[in-house]
Write a structure and sequence with these properties.
Helix content is about 35%, strand content about 25%. Strands 2-3-1-4 form a 4-stranded antiparallel sheet. By secondary structure, it is an alpha+beta fold. It is elongated and about 45 Å long. The longest helix has 13 residues, at about 30-40.
Amino acid sequence: MPVLIIGWSIYDKLPEEEQKEFALVERYRTDYFYECYEYENAKGNKNYEWSDRCFKNQEELLEFFGYEMIEELNADAVYARRVETFTDEDKKELMKFCDASNQIKVMGTN
């Protein structure tokens, strides 16, 4: 079953009943990325490329939040829930709550 991921700016504007359908997945802060890179560098992993269960790399994360630099992250959060289907109409409804960037991602679709 696909998973719908939304950013905090959409989540915060959803009605409370809809918010209850989502679970907090992760919070991202700039210092977290510095710590990851320092840790990997200390282990000798000079080619370290950050990723997690929601994003393939740092660039995808920044694009999701509409940022250009990792320093812009400040406790930005992502929320998720399982969905049976996610149509263009569903996306259009969520986009009404979106300020600047997309902050909508669906994972696990074929």
